[in-house]
Structures are given as structure tokens and as C-alpha cells.
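Morning!

This is the sequence you dropped in the shared folder:
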Amino acid sequence: MTDLGGYHDRIARVNLTDGSVEYEGIDTEDAQKYIGGRGLGVKYVFEQGPGVEPLSEDNLLAFMTGPLTGSQVTMSGRLAVCTKSPLTETVVDSHQGGWSGARLKWAGLDGLLFDGQADSPVYAYIEDGEVELRDAENFWGLGVHETKDKIESELDGKYGSNLSFMGIGPGGENEVRYAAIINEDDRASGRGGTGCVMGNKNLKAVVVKATTDLPKPADKETFQEGVQQAMGLIQDSDVTAPNEGGLSVYGTNVLMNLTEEMDGLPTKNSQYVSTRTERSGSPSEPNIDAENVSGESVRENILVNEPTCHSCPVACKKEVEVSTDHHGEEKEVRMESYEYESAWALGPHAMNDDRDKIAVMIDRCNDLGIDTIEAGNALSMAMDASEEGLIDEGIDWGDADEMIDMIEQIGHREGEIADTLAEGAQRAADILGDRQLAMSVKGMAIPAYDPRCMKGMGIGYATSNRGACHLRGYTPAAEILGIPEEVDPYEWEGKGELCATFQDLHAISDSFDICKFNAFAEGIEEYVLQFNGMTGLDYSEEEMIECGKRIYTLERYYNNLVGFDGADDTLPDRFLPDTDRTIEGQGASEGEICELEQMKEEYYDVRNWEDGVVPDTRLDELGIDIGPGTDTSSGATAVGDD
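The structure's back. C-alpha cells below.
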């Protein structure tokens, strides 16, 4: 039980097998150590056991808010979904924006813990702190958009007013390993297959009814000081300033031209570092330009609205409307998630620059409920494999119409190739016979930053606890934007420490749960003021940072118990020196590779880990007192080694 500000002290534990719902409080020590959101969610998943099978009734699926969720704090509309990933078999947390997180907090709950497996499809309805399981048989097989509309018509509520929806489409139902959970605003818990776990549990949706009820801070004066200080920084930032900063004007896709210009945009399944790289002129290789799918192009040509999330003045969401021909049929789409990562994965990485058809692809991924980043990487891998002769009737580079068709087939696992690609890029490459065609780490495909150019992303991808990910430790803030200070993207020295610092800060914000984009303006000082003001605690900056270290280390400890160690902290050979598959950078990145081993040594030293494994002494230092330990001490090299 806890009486700290920012918590309802109410967690719903839902057994889908027998339909029972029990309610429990939050241990105050857990709240102090792991905060909420990602941190507390991962602890609940850990307690279920690292050895569980991801696609089994034993796997826990946690929907978690944090103490700042749904509050006056800027960008506090986030929600974390935590589970064991069917894509990577690591622990995973995947977040979504919009209003779903805030509404769950306003409904009187800190979190939802689902285990077991329903006999038939159900959805969870939440109102006034209570959870009810309702029949979803009539919604099974429907896309996300039709499902949310039909559920809204059944209920006395309205999206955008007092109702939020988080659900799966055919991708989750058919256990596509990178299926996502999509909310009413097309915001996604996209990475790691959280929607696949949801589908395995026969849980079609989570629906929340609540009106605005902001959490009340325990120390109003400190809280207001933190909120006002943070808002001032956000308004003054060149990145986040409302209606002026790059993120506000162009959305996340402001990065497309920036990474292209520094030759750090992975292109043609990472064979090139930008679309302007000089190429062979092969007829199988389209001539494309990243500018066509950039935030600037989107704003000028197809932007129709700029909605926002709870308590966010930045409004990075860009709603677009397109009409484009697909096999002689006019496809008309209006959607609000034309994001940088999605545009890149379904665009330049697949040698495609058809802006409007990419909008159709993103919309289809959202309706099917699958991760756009993994889907794009799977398609790029398949194009590479086709060129290598590993697929008889393959996919041509940049064939946008074929990509649209294949996305649909992947969501339904229709046909041999689609069924293979539904396993994710790495597993699919293994099936096809060449793992190195997958640009993946620990089973999860890379996002849109080339580690031959941005060395911080190289160590970040390798050491991410959920597979290749930019959001565990966003070093491009420093390497591209100069935040909090400018660093040379090509210099590897110091990047191990930089990466660990960002990872710890993001573990904190993910546990609050607030948007990472606040980190373009705010820092640990603002985090501490807002957290202390809300909860009534008196944390120092050092104590707050230790929370981030503890959360990140808990995740690594979980993965160690699954069997991951330093050998898994690696990158595809294309990025590494002296392999048979090495491809050096071009243009401004001419001759560059990723000096991963040097950065790993620095990183492990900063973390006090032994070859990627958390020693028991480090667990003790951080107060992590659950589980059996790793049986590793300083000087050892792997879990259980003699």
C-alpha cells in the first residue's frame, strides 16, 4: 500500500482464464525504487518469471501508468505496455501517446495486469476503478478501426471526450510476432509484439471510460515550480517550441532530411547510408530521393490537421490525407501517424519514395495492428533476399504496390512468404538461410539511424534491453541536435558513457510516464522537481538517476536469466569491421564502420557489468532483491560460467 501522491494505489489483476478480477495496492518501496510505468511494469513481469513462454497463458501483459501520467505535467499522456516479447524473448516495454494513458489514470487505476488466456475473444471495459470483461466474438477478425467504431457505438461514450480504446487487429489475432496495440488516435505500442501477446490471450481490446481528473500533487508549490520551469524550457527550445520548433512544425519526420544530409540514413536494407549515395545504376535499383517523404514534403502537400496528446503544446502528430492509385483502384486514406521511423522503414530502407503510398502502408499497418518499423525491415530483407535468389517469386526493390499487398498478407499470414515475414526480419532471414540479411539485434529490427555514422546508436542498438532501438537511449539528441551538448557523431570514444546516461534518463521518463520528447528541453532538475512535487518525496538528482540505473539493470538482469549476455550485444555484420559482409559508409560517412567492441568495453565499465551480465554485487548495490541472482561476480564472463 502507498499513500504517495500521483498513485491511486489500485492495480487490477485480471485472470483471463477464469474471468476473475482482483485489486491490489502498490508497495511503497516498489514505488520508490521503480516509480511506475515501465519500471514497475517490468518488475511485475519479472515476478511472473523470466522463464515463461511469451505465447502462453503464463506470460503477464501489463498496462501501466506512472505517477505523472494524466497530470498537468507537459507531455504526460503516455502509457507503458510491458511483457515478455514473442519477437525477441527479452523483456519489453512499448509505449503509446494520445489520451489512453491519461484516461486510464483518470478512471482510477494505476495499471492492469492480464494473465491467463480467455476461452473466447473478450475485451476489458474500465470505468470508476472497476474492470469488466465483455464478449468480443463479434469483433474478432475485424481491423482496429472498425473494431473501435463498433465498440464506441455500443457504449455511452465518445472518443476524444470520455472514451479511449487500445486494441489489436488481425495481426495480433494471427500472432504476427511484431503485432502492435493501437489506440483510438492511431498511436501504437508498436515494438516487441505486445499485440501478439494480446492476441494469444484472446484479448481484443481494452476500453476506458473517464473524464478529466488530474492527479493532485502532494507538494503543490514544488510541483508548480517544476511544471513552469519545464514549460519555459520547452517553449524556448528550437526543437519543441510550439508552432516554431522543428518537431512542432514538421513532426518526427523533421529528421528525414537531417539524417540524409549527414549520410546517416540507412538505405536499401542498410547497403547505403543515404538515398544520394552514388550507385551502380542497376535496373533493379530505383533512383529515389528521401526529400519526397520528408516532413517538409508532407507539410507542403498532404497535411490536413495537427492534433495533439494530453497536456502537450508541441503537437508533433501530423494528420495527412492522400488519394493514390493501387492496381487501378483509388485508395483514399486519412490518418495521423506519418512518422519518421515509419516513413523511413517503408520508404528509403526499401528503396521507395512514393509519399502517398507510404501513407497507405502506414494506415494498413495500423488497421492490421502491426509494427511499421519491423514490417518495413522485413520487406527490405525480403527484397535483399530476392536479389540474392533466396526467394523464387520475390519482391522488387521499391515496388510500393507489392509492398501494400504484402503488408495485408502478413497481417493475415496468407501465403508462404507472408507467413515467413510475419515472424520478423531476423527469424525470416534465418528461415531463408541468411541471418545477415536482417538488420536486427536480439530479434528486433533497427530504426532509422545508421550506426556507421552515429556511433552512439551503434552501442545503443547493441545494448538495448528490448532489441535494436533508438528509444532506449536517444543519443541522436546529442549527435544530430546538439542536446544537451554537441558531440561528434563519428567519434566512438565516450559514446558508451553517453549511451548509458541517456538510457538511465529515458528509464526515468518512461516510468513517470511522460514523452521522451521532453528530453529535448528538460533535464534531471525538472524531473526531480515534478516527481517530488507530485509524490511528496524528497529525492536528490543522484537518487533519481539511481532509479534509472536500477530499472535499466533490472531489465538486463531479466534478460540474463533468459540466457542473454555480451555475445548478444552485437550488430549485423554490415556495420562492423573486418567481416565478410562489411559495407563501409559512403559520402560524408566514407569509410566509416561501427567500432562496437571498443564502445562495449567502455559501456560495461560504466555499467559495472561483466561481459553483458549483471554481477550479483551490482544487484546488491542497486537494491535489486528479487530473483535468484546471476551467479556472476566481478571478473566472470557469463551467467553460470565456471
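Headline: The longest helix spans residues 541-562.

More detail when I'm at my desk.
O.
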